Amino acid sequence: MAPRVGDEVSNKQVVLRDYVTGYPKESDMFLTTGTIKLKVPQGSDAVLVKNIYLSCDPLMQFFMRKAVGLTGYNRYTPGCPIFGYGVAKVLDSGNPEFKAGDLVWGTTGWEEYSLITKTESLIKIQHTDVPLSYYTGILGMPGMTSYAGFYEVGAPKKGEYVFVSAASGAVGQLIGQFAKLEGCYVVGSAGSKEKVDLLKNKLGFDEAFNYKEEHDLNAALKRYFPEGIDVYFEHVGGEMLDAVLLNMRQFGRIAVCGMISQYNLDEPQGIKNLMHIGFKWIHMQGYTHRNYYHLYPKFLDTVLPFIREKKLVYVEDVAEGLENGPAALVGLFSGRNFGKQVVAVAQE
């Protein structure tokens, strides 16, 4: 029998062991089982949810460090469950914006059930004719990141030359497809033959290459962009950014969303070719999804028809069970995932 509101039930949780330096390891987290009463405390405006899907995102590694280094974000607390974006079903609510039975996405705990007190991060799911797991990715934070980066920051035009690094990831795969829908020439880089095949044969990129097999990234980019790059969507940093700067066209744009190659280096790599920003009048802008939440309705109006008409392909890598969550999260940093990494906690 399914648990009912008011019942006290067991609650599996993924807990941070201690603050992390360098890349997180599975051993930095452990699985434990506590208990939770399926009832919002009287007088509270919190929401009690059953978690269905959890999102694995590169950003989460920063929350495991003693000093986050990111404005406006909270770090994890050792001995407590980690948190991130997820999809959940409301079981009980003290908040008039949500009622039992609602499906939501937003920040939740890595556990079976969560009492969410900061409900401002929750968005009610209105469209259930698409997979619920999509709200951890294409219709959630990575989707908003892709939409903002493409339409608001990089803004490629028909016929322009677009390069996307980490192109098979949750954000890169969408940006490349948006660019193709706008009539751009699109090339992506990824870290394996299988991911390159995915980009070219399933996601519709014009070309793709495995950066691990390229001894000279400058030469590789000249091969795929003999006339140069108009817009670069930056997710990697380091040597890739240095090579891109050499190959940008005049008035090019670089939209900076992440630099995953630099996150865990003791000394981040220096960029030698920054002078090209001045020589070529390049516009380089950083962004995150957090600046663009006001566009979420417009984003849905754009992306939902693409999904329904099968104009967008979205690839997910789903790990089954909360107990497999730490391995799935850690796998992001070695490129083990194939598409958007999701943890399935419960049946929809």
From TrEMBL:
Keywords: Oxidoreductase. Residues 43-343 form the Enoyl reductase (ER) domain. One of its GO terms (molecular function) is oxidoreductase activity, acting on the CH-CH group of donors, NAD or NADP as acceptor. PANTHER family: NADP-DEPENDENT ALKENAL DOUBLE BOND REDUCTASE, PROSTAGLANDIN REDUCTASE. This is Enoyl reductase (ER) domain-containing protein. It comes from Juglans regia.
